[in-house]
Amino acid sequence: MITIDVSELRNECDELSEFLKSKLQASIIIKDTMLVITPEETLSIKDAKEYVKRFLHYKGLSEICKVTEEKEVIKIAKRKKVGKQKPKKKGKEPTSYDTLPYFFPNRPQ
């Protein structure tokens, strides 16, 4: 028996259960914010996690949510928003005097 915690995605609970029913040969019961999967054949937790990831990608939620597993529970959690980090500069910028080529104006060629 594998349980999936969908407390972060309550709106998508029914669609996730339908998706898993179509992909897995198992009975799925919805209890509050949990989906309980009782497989008819052998089903590993990693396979179930992979199908949950596929569902999130199919719905366009893979960048918002992540999937983790702990023992027999698969959790869907929202990712933390991380702002863009500025690259660190090493040293200091050279002055324009240092970067311009030096020309000798009266030099014979």
Fill in the keyword field for this structure.
109 residues, alpha+beta, Gyrase A, domain 2, five-stranded mixed sheet, 3 helices, 28% helix, rod-shaped
Helix and strand topology:
Blueprint: E1 2-5, H1 13-23, E2 26-31, E3 34-39, H2 45-59, E4 65-70, E5 73-78, H3 96-99
Helix pairs in contact: 1-2
Q: In a few lines, what is going on in this structure?
A:
This protein has 109 residues and is α+β, with helices and mostly antiparallel strands.
Q: Report the portion of residues in β strands.
A: 25-35%
CA-based shape: rod-shaped
Ranges where pLDDT stays below 50 over 5 or more residues in a row are none
User: How would you state the average pLDDT, rounded?
Assistant: 84
Q: How many angstroms separate the termini?
A: 86 Å
Rounded radius of gyration (Å): 27 Å
Q: Give the structural class.
A: alpha+beta
Order of helices and strands: EHEEHEEH
From the 3D coordinates, which CATH architecture would you assign?
2-Layer Sandwich
Largest sheet: 5 strands, mixed
Helix content: 25-40%
The CATH first-level class comes to Alpha Beta
